[in-house]
Design a protein that fits this description.
Elements (H helix, E strand, L loop, with lengths): L8 H26 L3 H12 L3 H20 L5 H29 L6 H42 L1
Helix pairs in contact: 1-2, 1-3, 1-5, 3-4, 3-5, 4-5
């Protein structure tokens, strides 16, 4: 039986994937304006629009869907959620490495994609991990409080 406090998939996606896209985009856009070297600033601004936030958001999406499917929806304990999130973040980094290597090897992307996409995917996975773990902790605490208040009402 599903807990009433369990977060919904759309709620998780809105709270996790959107910030994993917008956080690097906003921060790096501002930082690129502050860099005195124009060439470096433009390169960072271009990366801030495409190569950094997109892998971060995709990794957060994969981690969120993975945890939703295998932990939250099946109501597994928190330790299982933490293990799932860590595994999913690691897998996102490995997948980003493989995809980036394939794109660079075929000539579709420059080699600087390694320094942009892989850390971004790992950070996106980490953002999803932290947010889902916090949401799960809140749900667990709320469930325990509801159970305590229910048992206290019974006395």
């Amino acid at each position: 039986m599903r807990n009433q406090n369990t977060p919904t998939l759309t709620g998780l996606l809105a709270k996790i994937v959107v910030p994993s896209y917008l956080a690097p985009l906003c921060v790096l856009s501002v930082v690129s304006r502050l860099i005195p070297n124009r060439v470096t600033g433009r390169a960072l601004a271009r990366a801030a629009l495409a190569t950094i936030p997109i892998p971060s958001a995709l990794a957060a999406l994969v981690v969120t869907l993975f945890i939703w499917q295998y932990s939250i929806q099946r109501e597994r304990p928190l330790l299982s959620v933490w293990r799932s999130a860590t595994l999913a973040a690691t897998v996102c980094g490995a997948v980003a490495l493989c995809v980036t290597a394939a794109l660079v090897a075929t000539g579709y992307a420059p080699t600087r994609l390694f320094s942009d996409a892989i850390p971004s995917a790992i950070i996106g996975g980490a953002i999803a991990t932290v947010k889902i773990t916090k949401a799960t902790l809140r749900v667990d605490l709320a469930s325990k409080r509801m159970g305590e208040s229910f048992s206290n009402d019974m006395l």
